[in-house]
Amino acid sequence: MSFKDKVVWITGASSGIGEALTYALSKRGAKLIISSRRREALEEVKEQCEGNRSDIQIISLDLAESESLPGKTEEALAAFGHIDYLFNNGGISQRSLVMDTSMDVVRKVMEVNFFGTVALTKAILPSMIDRNSGHIIVTSSVMGKFGTRLRSSYAASKHALHGWFDCLRQEVYEHNIDVSLVCPGYIKTDVTLNALEGDGSRHGKMGKGQEKGMEPDTFTQKLLPKVLKGKEEIYIGGFELMGIYLKRFFPSLLNKVLKNSEVT
Length: 264
Known about the structure:
By secondary structure, the chain is an alpha/beta fold. The chain has one domain: NAD(P)-binding Rossmann-like Domain (Rossmann fold, 3-Layer(aba) Sandwich). Helices cover 45% and strands 13% of the residues. It contains nine helices and seven strands; from the N terminus they run βαβαβαβαβαβααβαα. Helix 2 links the parallel strand 2 and strand 3 (56-58). Helix 1 crosses helix 7, helix 3 (69-80) runs parallel beside helix 4 and helix 8 crosses helix 9 (251-259). The mean pLDDT is 97.
């Protein structure tokens, strides 16, 4: 199996993991639809691709505007006639204590990470069901499996994705549609720089974990073979992945570890 001539839609494609996915899949001969809020940034990403740029279409969108996503989906389907892979990669993070986080920030994080992702998936599902084929990939996080300080809304949004997409997976087996939840550990992206403070302002600081994290290109090289195999949950990262297994088998020990850990 390969991605050659497959139609792939990537959200959050203007930077980080989404940008790395765009380069890697273009090189592998996929037909791409790349999306984010920043059209100019998407144009720059397209220009840097090594593959056939005529096979790359740009559709700018804002995941916070759920009502616009059915229309964006119609545009995407019109580009190449169908979608083989949807990479739900767009999202936003948060860095603030619960007591310091406004409800507006809680709602915004949930709107982008959860409701936007759900709305886009629901919009694309009928076409995949009609073709009896498709693969939906969701970028979650290790925070989708356990929580730490300063990430309450972010972790909640990722936990919600796991619940919703686990249910969806059960509903689409009969339609030959795969659902993969991807849980990255620390990846060297701007996620903490762009995270929201409790008042909605930009955090503007690179987290220590991200600073020492895996390069997005390396992450992508590890991810794509697992996607082709149809893995249902994919964990990629460093030592921080141990938290997933501690949560599952030794939750009290994980709590003790986290209490004594520096969180940025």
